[in-house]
Amino acid sequence: MRTIRIALMWFFGLAGLAKAQTNFFIQDIQVNPDSSVTITWPAVPQIPYHVMFADSPTGMWQDFTDGTVTAGSNVWSLGYTDTNGFIATQRFYRIRKTRAQLIMALVLDRSGSMGCEPPCGSGGGFVLPAVVSSFIDFFDDTTDKVAMSSFASEAKLNVPMEQPFRNDIKNAANAMSFAGRTFAEGGLQIGFNQVNNTPVPPGESVVKVIVFFTDGYANTFQTNFSCSATPINLGQGDPPIGGSTNAGAPWSFNFMDPTAGNNISCSSTTFPSLDGTIKTISQNNQNIWNEAHLHALSVANQIRSANILIYSIGLGAGPDPDFLRNIANDPAGSAYNPSQISGEAVFAPDASHLQAVFDQIAAKVLYQ
After folding, report:
1. Partners of residue 37 on adjacent β-strands
2. Could you read off the pLDDT of 225-258 as tens digits, one per residue?
3. How far apart are CA 350 and CA 315, in angstroms?
4. Is there a contact between 149 and 179 (Cβ–Cβ < 8 Å)?
5. Residues 108-133: what's their mean pLDDT?
6. Cα–Cα distance, 181 to 186 (Å, whole number)
């Protein structure tokens, strides 16, 4: 007499002929009187499932030729019978669900506060490489495509859209250094370009996603100034929000090279705002901060208009929660637009919770 053993891998149910167990994906494995084996699992209507077998969990997995099963409109459970199970001394099974290819960009904050532990910053830079490494392992190196951009006083493309991607993303995250201001606009623009310009073969189903992470206030933007023939960056220290240590201080501002991020000389005293007015530059008003938000939100609006989903992740007390919700078009945001694709903003109160939040977003991305 034989019994059944089930082990579990992410998104897969695995079973061998040994001790009976169950898990959240496979509901039941039954050895029939004729020694055939029937497995059943919960299903989502209209989704194809594929039944596979191997002689060990690490052996060569093969599709059953008749093992592609699709649930009907009102069907919530599926079954498959292996009529040849009796010829194997041990047989392992797994069920895989077909999902669309993922085209994703990570947009990561590497500003100075990331490299400074509380109270001067979030200290997120001490854990971010490991968090990104774990996060990226959720995705398929042979099916999905992923890029990575990062931002501080300037923004750069760390890893272009590619497949495979895991090793390059992990290496780029480990190589990041943390210094400078928070040019969220630039990081989002690069991520948008990478996702939006990735070709999709006709008839292929894809999910396009940007995961935006920051531990601070968007305080830098790029535009044309009278002192320069080309656009440059303008940034200012954070306003007194959350746990900012700058509260009550004069927030100095700097003009910066948009490529290198170093400070440059500029005599401009005004700038053209996205709202159509001319704004003054001063450390005693909020014009720079407000403009940085307008620029980042403008890019996010372009992203969502292209039907690209945005997830925002905020770390610590520094980020403006409503800003991150509006970047993602989270229904809880003050500027929620029901005519655009809806994302979500999630928050880690400190660096020790960052892994759990990224894991949460990975699950949401995979189930799109």
Report:
1. 31, 82
2. 999 999 999 999 887 654 444 544 568 999 999 9
3. 6
4. no
5. 95
6. 12
Give the list of residues 6+ apart from residue 276 with CB closer than 8 angstroms, or none: none
CB 190 within 8 A of CB 159: no
Give the count of beta carbons closer than 10 Å to the beta carbon of residue 188: 28
Measured CA to CA, the distance from residue 298 to residue 300 in angstroms comes to 5
The structure tokens listed for 146 are 């992923």
Amino acid found at 85:
G
Whether the per-residue pLDDT at 6 is higher than 60: the answer is no
Nearest to 47 by CA among 77, 80, 10, 82: 77
Distance CA 88, CA 258 (A): 64
> pLDDT, tens digit, for every residue of 276-328?
999 999 988 999 999 999 999 999 999 999 999 999 999 999 899 999 999 99
For the beta carbon of residue 226, count every other beta carbon within 10 angstroms.
11
Provide the token pair at 41.
């699992």
Contact 30, 38 (CB under 8 A): yes
Q: d(Cα 240, Cα 192) in Å, to the nearest integer?
A: 30
- Convert 27-41 to b/e letters by CB count within 10 Å (16 or more is b): bebebeeeeebebbb
Output the pLDDT for position 323.
Answer: 97
* Contacts by 348-351, CB closer than 8 A, 24 or more apart: 348/313, 348/314, 348/315, 348/316, 349/316, 350/118, 350/122, 350/123, 350/315, 350/316, 351/122, 351/123, 351/124, 351/126, 351/127, 351/315, 351/316
Distance in angstroms (rounded) separating the CA atoms of residues 35 and 38:
10
Q: Which of 77-81, 126-130, 139-143, 285-289 has the highest mean pLDDT?
A: 126-130
CA distances from 273 to 98, 281, 283, 289, 298 (A): 46, 11, 17, 12, 12
The answer to whether residues 68 and 27 touch, using CB atoms and an 8 Å cutoff, is no
Question: Residue 187: is it exposed, middle or buried by C-beta count within 10 angstroms (0-12/13-18/19+)?
Answer: buried
CA 343/CA 341 separation, integer angstroms: 7
Phi, psi of 172 (to 5 degrees): -65, -40
- 76 CB-contact burial (10 Å; exposed 0-12 / middle 13-18 / buried 19+): exposed
